[in-house]
Specification:
heterotrimer, A: alpha/beta, C: 363 residues, Rossmann fold, 2 domains, five-stranded parallel sheet, 10 helices, globular, Electron transfer flavoprotein small subunit (chain A)
Chain lengths: 264, 389, 363
Amino acid sequence: MKAIVCVKQVPDTSGKVAVKENGQLDRASMATITNPDDLAALEAALRLKDATGCEVVAVSMGPFTAESMLRECIARGADRAVLISGREFGGSDTFATSQIIAAGINKIGVGPEDVVFCGRQAIDGDTAQVGPQIAEKLGLPQVTYAAEIEKDGNSLIVKRLLEDGYMKIKVQTPCLITCVKELNEPRYMSVPGIFSCFDSEIEVLDYPALQDDPLIEVDTIGLKGSPTNVFKSFTPPQKGAGTMLAGDDVANQLATILAKKHLI
Amino acid sequence: MDFTLSKQQKLVQQMYQEFAQNEVKPLAKKVDAEEYFPKETVEKMAKLGMMGIYFPKEVGGAGADVLSYVMAVEEMSKVCGTTGVILSAHTSLCAAPIYENGTPEQKAKYLPKLCSGEWLGAFGLTEPGAGTDAQGQQTTAVDCGDHWLLNGSKIFITNAGYADVFIIIAITGTVTDKRGRKSKEISAFIVERNFPGFSVGKPEEKMGIRGSSTCELIMEDCIVPKENLLGKKGRGFQLAMATLDGGRIGIAAQALGIAEGALDETIAYVKERKQFGRSIAAFQNTQFELAEMKARVDAAKYLVYKAALKKQEAMDGAKVRYSVEAAEAKLIASRTASDVTRRCLQLFGGYGYTRDYPIERMMRDAKITEIYEGTSEVQMMVISGALLK
Amino acid sequence: MADFSEYKNVWVFCEQRQGELQTTDFELVSEATKLASELGCKVVGLLLGDNVKGLANEIAGYGADEVVVCESPLLKDYTTDAYAKVLCDMVNEFKPEVLLIGATNIGRDLAPRIAARLHTGLTADATHLDIDTKGYVEYLRESSTIDVDNTTFDWEDRNLKMTRPAFGGHLMATIICPRFRPQISTVRPGVMKKAAFDSAKAQAVKVIEPAFELSADDIKTEVLSIEKAANKLVDLIGADIIVSVGRGIGKDVEKGIALAQELADVLGGGVVGASRAVTDAGWLDAAHQVGQTGKTVHPKIYVALGISGAIQHTAGMQDSECIIAINKNETAPIFGVADYGIVGDLFKVVPQLIEEIKKAKVA
């Protein structure tokens, strides 16, 4: 039995975000982190390992610098890590990305009891599309927005968040689950984990390793092949600054303005 | 001296920082105000392999190194001095002497449980009449054939209220030197909390590190198995002094952490606090104070890290001693902690004197580092003794 | 260039839960009428469920010309497998040019799955849609820093231009899907304006009930239960008044939240929102979160208490009609989007403000 976890290294958009003059994100100047929802996915997989002793495999698609993040996954408790990386994959949209990752997962192999865990969405793109699209390509049932996961024999019972409540869904393995932050508290890297993670070999799957996989359509990968393209990207203008109120009677000034504007 | 952190050390430092911010800092005020021993933090540290950081995996340790251990004490102490000393006393004063002096059986019995954090460790040397003058011991251990019988008491024992295993120093007889002068023969023992005749007294009420459990140990006809003599009979004083050499590096790291933590708080505060229409960071007095404190903290840091690297050499099998390095590190780091926390509090002004801000706690926590595991005066004796021999 | 001539009409997937249409459906149908008029085609609602045909008039009242209804007991509650199968079958049969899906937790489960199966692109969480380049350029003039007058545009372009925030709202990206059809986008709830309900149009609706195949074997998941949240839900999207709290309440979290609620009450029955820092810290649950990863709101009055105004937050509230910010730090970016700003300690200013508003209301 395996738990396969998809993780992404993302720029930390909660901190200072640098945008280049041409409207593109200046990734080089920003700190990178493991996508927060993906850490919840990793923790879900590690808990499955705690309960069943299953193997945990972390998978990421990205540049070679994502290797450090995969080592951190091992330091947290993952058994293996696979990096899908190749120039040909660069610029892929979610459609293209999901077929590449699905092909990579195919290489790892999805057994009858296996579970693929993904984060709900990545904080750079915020699309929440790659998880379900991997499930579609692999022909796996999916449950998204998982806030609780319980193992019940060969099935999982998942509490799936809705805006106005939740659904309890029973799903048979193999399946794909996308996890929200609320699912759990990700564990820290452990000291022994940190001191052994650099000894593990990170398996790399490049374009030649995947190109013959039946899931790969050579004309829909990478920047050129992606079905969607960026037509324009731009920065929103800052709204003009308003009025700053000052003095001992600011509360009175504001109440007067609101009354005048019939807002109260 | 190469202070470049390895990639493992960088990553482990990052983990400690996240852990300290998220798990340790939120409890620090309660630990101080309620004299609360943070059991849950100890359990969390145990899960992460932090209770046996630099011991090899074969004995249950994390397989890291001394500097990674020192950084752990440092990072915890940045936000909570109590948590720092719990870790230091357990590792340096209990697990370390067993690792360094224990028989294979003793190591196999105690180290895995100490390193996993299932057991917490402590060290009993100080007595009411034997502080800096460690030769003034009164606790006795009598050889009763198949066991030892211990009688006496120890005071100011860190972790005592929660520890499961204690290293106890006791008199096992008298020795006569070549000139016919008699002196006490001192030995070390591994004593478990539930040995018959062993009890722990009430915790002390302290000025700082208030959550650290500091109690008296009482031994009344305490029966200790024969095989629990640690090291050779009659070598207990040397064992205690060597243990304190390691312990002092831990306390130096604690002092360093407290100073760094106070500086971090102060830097944030002076940017926010406004007087005379501008942030007090804009005043040159603030800038110069910060600059000097930072330089002193860095100086202390280099001494602490240097001592850690020297101990690492010993761990790796080199025949080196690090008494002087440890004494220098502790002397300077503890003075820096007291000095920096006092000056930081001054920059906070009246707010710093209130318990709304952590700076007065840090100032109180800092003071003990100049006292325990050898006062600053003892450190100077160690250093000057080496200079003038 | 592929031949798309057989792809026609703008479709809206109309999500129902327990037989009730979602507000987002009406926003999307209203927006679809704008796109359909630019394309010169019809707006078609797609409704899946069990015994839901009666909702078709409501959909039409907001602008749908036709409603395709697929009814089956297997479609009563949402399941990815059943809905994806039927939706894909309908798209393959009718070939819409554009398909809009609300970016709800259900829409965002369904849309990627069907886009992958239909072999087409998908844009997530769009906040602005255009067909005509002219309208798009005007939008850019208003909402971007692009010098549109010195930029070349293809005025004949008929692709759907789907604009969405990315990187936590720091960047906006316009996405197109030129090589495949349909062009699919999920659309952020609360952003598109709902049109006025047109009863005549509602009555004139044409309901189409095509045959489709669906069996229990198609569904790999089982819905065990559906629970409504026990607590009264925070309806940020529909609120006229929102008082949000940020990290600045850290000194006394309980009091900070209580003050925000009291202020919201005196302003006229508002609700309490929160920045991500607050929900991350667990001071309020995620339902309160306003911003890029939370809700997008445009109330009449938005008060930000102790919120620094990271773009992640402002992305979700900057279109509020009147923004009031109270923050200790005069350089906080929140003041850059505020209509009225007060530099001060919220714990001091808010109680005064509550009193003054009470007085002003009496006067």
